[in-house]
C-alpha cells in the first residue's frame, strides 16, 4: 500500500476520511511551544492533530489550530482533530460532560474523532453509549477506543450498536501487535499508532540504521514508513520544526517486502507505556 502524501487519507468504516499521518502532543506542556508546534505542523501540510483531556494541553492545541488554519488559509473541515475521554470520566453523563469540556478548551464546534482513552473494566461500556449518543447526534464525526486489546473489543462489540471505528494503541517495531492488527483488520477497525518511535528508544538500532542508510533516510523515517506500509495511521510527536518536517518526509520512498519483514522481526512484545490489562487506574 502506497501512501503518497501528507494529505492522503484512509476511509474509515463509517465513510469518514482520516489522514494517514498526523502530529501527536502527548506530554507537551500547554504554552507557546505547543501552540507553535501545532501551527507549524499545519503550515507544513499536516492535516491531523491528536490530543487528550489528560494531556492538559487542549487549550494550547486549540490556539495552535486556530492560528494554523488562519495562516494556512484552510477551513476547519480540512483538519482532523482527535481527543480522548479520561478514565475518571467514564460514566454516561460524565463522558458527555467531558466531551463538552474538551470542545470548549479546544475552541471547536465538533471533533472528528473521540476515543475512550483506556479500557477501564466495568466503566467503558457506559462511556461507549455516551460516544454513540454524541455520534448519532452528529456532534462527532467518528468514535473509537485507545489501548483496547482483542478481548476488550470483543466485549464491547457484543453490546455496542456502533462498532469502534478506530483503535489507537502503542505500536512500534518492538511491539508490532500482529494479532490485534489482524483482528482489527477483519472487523474493519482502523489501527492507529501512538509512541511509534518508542519514545526515542529505537533511534540507535543497528538493524534500522542499515535500512535507513540504504534509503538515505533517518531511522525515525524508516519506522514511520513501516507504520504506513502496514496500514497503520501514525502520529509522531515533536515540537521542533525541523523534526516535524523530517517526520513527514516519508512519502518519496518505499520499503521492500524483505525490509518490512526484517523490521517485523524486531518485535519483542515490549511496551514503553502501561499494559492495558494491568494498568493501575
Automatic annotation (TrEMBL):
Report keywords, A-Z.
Oxidoreductase
Q: What are the residue positions of the site described as Lowers pKa of active site Tyr?
A: 84
Keyword flag Lyase: no
Binding residues annotated for substrate, in chain numbering: 117
- Which domain of life does the protein's organism represent? Bacteria
Domain (NADP-dependent oxidoreductase): give its ranges: 32-267
Q: Does the keyword Oxidoreductase apply?
A: yes
Molecular function as annotated in GO: oxidoreductase activity
Output the InterPro entries linked to this UniProt entry.
AKR, AKR5G, Aldo/ket_reductase_CS, NAD(P)_OxRdtase_dom_sf, NADP_OxRdtase_dom
Query: Where's the active site on this chain?
Result: 55 (proton donor)
Give the UniProt family note: Belongs to the aldo/keto reductase family.
| Classification via PANTHER family | 2,5-DIKETO-D-GLUCONIC ACID REDUCTASE
Name of the protein in question: Glyoxal reductase
**Organism of provenance:** Mesobacillus campisalis
Amino acid at each position: 500500500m502506497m501512501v503518497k502524501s501528507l494529505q492522503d487519507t484512509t476511509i474509515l468504516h463509517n465513510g469518514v476520511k482520516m489522514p494517514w499521518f498526523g502530529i501527536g502532543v502527548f506530554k507537551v506542556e500547554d504554552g507557546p511551544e505547543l501552540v507553535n508546534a501545532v501551527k507549524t505542523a499545519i503550515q507544513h501540510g499536516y492535516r491531523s492533530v491528536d490530543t487528550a483531556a489528560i494531556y492538559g494541553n487542549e487549550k494550547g492545541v486549540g490556539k495552535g489550530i486556530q492560528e494554523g488554519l488562519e495562516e494556512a488559509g484552510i477551513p476547519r473541515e480540512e483538519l482532523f482533530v482527535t481527543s480522548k475521554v479520561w478514565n475518571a470520566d467514564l460514566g454516561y453523563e460524565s463522558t458527555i460532560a467531558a466531551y463538552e469540556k474538551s470542545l470548549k478548551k479546544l475552541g471547536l464546534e465538533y471533533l472528528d474523532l473521540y476515543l475512550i482513552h483506556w479500557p477501564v473494566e466495568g466503566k467503558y461500556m457506559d462511556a461507549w453509549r455516551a460516544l454513540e449518543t454524541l455520534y448519532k447526534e452528529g456532534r462527532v464525526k467518528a468514535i473509537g477506543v485507545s489501548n483496547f486489546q482483542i478481548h476488550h473489543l470483543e466485549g464491547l462489540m457484543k453490546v455496542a450498536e456502533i462498532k469502534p471505528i478506530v483503535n489507537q494503541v502503542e505500536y512500534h517495531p518492538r511491539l508490532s501487535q500482529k494479532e490485534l492488527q489482524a483482528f482489527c483488520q477483519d472487523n474493519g477497525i482502523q489501527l492507529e499508532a501512538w509512541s511509534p518511535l518508542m519514545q526515542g528508544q529505537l533511534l540507535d538500532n543497528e538493524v534500522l540504521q542499515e535500512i535507513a542508510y540504504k534509503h538515505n533516510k533517518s531511522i525515525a523515517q524508516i519506522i514511520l514508513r513501516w507504520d504506513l506500509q502496514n496500514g497503520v495511521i501514525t502520529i509522531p510527536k515533536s515540537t521542533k520544526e525541523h523534526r516535524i518536517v523530517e517526520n513527514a518526509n516519508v512519502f518519496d520512498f518505499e520499503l521492500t517486502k524483505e525490509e518490512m519483514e526484517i523490521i517485523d522481526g524486531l518485535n519483542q512484545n515490549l511496551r514503553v507505556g502501561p499494559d492495558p490489562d494491568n494498568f493501575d487506574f
